Amino acid sequence: MVNETRRISPDEVAAEISACEKVRAEISKIFESAPTYYIETFGCQQNEADSQRLAGICRLCGYVPTRNIKEAKLILFNTCAIREHAEKKALSIIGETKHIKEKDSRVIIGIGGCMVSQKRRADKIKNSNPYVNFTFDTGAIHSVPSLILGAVRGQKRKFILSDNFGIAEGIPFHNETPYKAWLSIMYGCNNFCSYCIVPYVRGRERSRRPEDILAEARQLIEAGAKDITLLGQNVNSYGRDLGGMGIASLMREICKIEGDFRLRFMTSHPKDASDELIAAMAEEEKIVKHFHLPVQSGSNRVLDAMNRKYTREKYLSIIKKLKAAVPDVSITSDIIVAFPGETDEEFEETLSLLSEVRYDMIFSFIYSPREGTPAAALDCQIDRAVANDRYSRLLALQDEITAERNARFVGRTMKVLCEEVSKTDPGMMTGRGNTPRPVHFAGDESLIGQFVNVKITKSDLFSLSGEIV
Ligand code: SAH
Ligand code: SF4
Ligand code: F3S
Questions:
Q1: Which of the chain's ends, N or C, has fewer CB atoms near its CB within 10 Å?
Q2: pTM for this structure?
Q3: In this structure, which residue's CA is closest to atom 24 in ligand 1?
């Protein structure tokens, strides 16, 4: 296929980013010392990666970070729309900024991300939240410098909704934990699963050029990255629009870069889980032996209604190949319960699929109708009590499986990247091995960002623990 992806020209991006200099000059007239920025991120890793770009922009504009929203002079929200709860949470926190602005009119408030990439949401913010200076959709991050500039200069409020999402290279970014990095390799989604809002808020699939990705990977590794996750809504369809290398070859190229680092990727769609990708995972030492392959449901009727484009049998055949090629692989999944019209028997099929696959972990969600998606218009929505009951049964079964899967690591020594001080015990450190599970071990902050060998002595539902050897 020909490359039809809209690439925003380097000159255009550079011109947009040069607005940061002008912001710098303006704020030096308004504030005595460097003002602070605060970014709150909702949703998935894609949003976290986008927020690193926003942080890069804020810094280039002359703002310094704060963890206290109440003292921030530039507040950015990066929102999510995947379920109703995500939107409600964001709207409630956005509402609270009204008081911050009342105390200091110099405060600038901007909202980006998937929620405000929907016209009705952007319109609502425009009409009901007059203290919000601007909104921008997921394709307009490169325009944020000029949005901030306009707000600093007291110009009219702006609400950006692009009709043609492109790729902008060259936006600065800031990563607070350089040892752990996100690397977006593609954007958007073409799948239109019938329940999902993502294709409407992130546009069509578009892949970054391999040379741009490899250059960024080198840059990250030079900056100390030891754990890199390649990101895309549908990451294993990488390259379709370019007609060149797919994700397997791309990962093999990244693995050739010199350095002690690990490579992960998410999220994959079963329809694109190729033999080449499985082979790359089996053969490349740097690729983490973890495959996140969301199945959503175990029932063929429901899968069809979801427009997932595979059957239970097809999915299980991929799992079989994967387990044969990568014997100790950790497999994880997303599951939706109570999709409109899901019967008890169909739900049972999801339970039986869990028992068959034996996932290391699942992320499970009760179906949430999203306005504008085909599933939201179905008139067979499931009763809340039934949905809750199915959800509990799903978790109970998976807990048993998870406990059993985690226990297999006890007694093994694992190479773990020390990431942070444990959230529950300040004497312990938390890191990650070659699995999706966190590992706790005694240590101190000097180990952060380094690999250590940990002998696993204990496992529970959520984590592993052990001692450095
Ligand atoms: N692109 C990825 C992730 C999409 S969002 C993928 O295709 O797997 C992450 C998960 O949220 C989805 O896998 C799905 O399980 C869940 N999800 C998406 N839309 C939802 C909805 N309307 N209600 C409940 N869960 C939803
Ligand atoms: Fe949503 Fe489906 Fe695309 Fe995933 S593949 S982002 S679930 S439409
Ligand atoms: Fe949410 Fe958008 Fe990610 S809807 S899950 S932030 S792609």
A1: N
A2: 0.96
A3: 367
The C-alpha atoms of residue 25 and residue 177 are separated, in whole angstroms, by 29
Among the bound ligands, name the one nearest to the CA of residue 334.
1
> Is residue 305 within 6 Å of ligand 3 at its C-beta?
no
pLDDT at residue number 4 = 67
For residue 116, the one-letter residue type is: V
Ligand closest to the CA atom of residue 367 = 1
Percent of the chain exceeding pLDDT 70 equals: 99
Phi, psi of 452 (to 5 degrees): -135, 155
- Indicate if ligand 1 lies below 6 Å from the C-beta of 308: no
> Percent of the chain beyond pLDDT 90?
96
- Side-chain-side CA neighbours of residue 363 (13 Å): 9
State whether the beta carbon of 297 lies less than 6 angstroms from ligand 2. no
Q: Are strands 361-366 and 180-184 parallel, antiparallel or unpaired?
A: unpaired
Please check the confidence at residue 5 and state whether its pLDDT lies above 80: no
- The secondary structure of 195-227 as a DSSP string is T--HHHHH-S-EEPPHHHHHHHHHHHHHTT-SE
Which phi and psi angles does 316 have, rounded to 5°?
Answer: -65, -30
Give CA–CA dist 265/228, Å, rounded. 8
Q: Which atom of ligand 2 is nearest to the CA of 308?
A: 2
Q: Is the CB of 83 under 6 A from ligand 3?
A: no
Cβ of 191 less than 6 Å from ligand 2: yes
Residue 4 CB neighbour total at 10 angstroms: 9
Residue 66 has pLDDT above 70, yes or no: yes
- Name the average pLDDT for the chain: 96
- Judge if the beta carbon of residue 80 lies within 6 A of ligand 3: yes
Whether 322 contacts 357, CB under 8 Å: no
207/236 Cα distance (integer angstroms): 11
The preferred substitution site among 334, 366, 368 for testing ligand 1, maximizing ligand atoms within 8 Å of CB, is: 334
Distance CA 392, CA 149 (A): 49
- CB of 90 closer than 6 angstroms to any ligand 3 atom: no
Determine the residue type at 283: E
The arithmetic mean of pLDDT across residues 218-231, rounded, is: 98
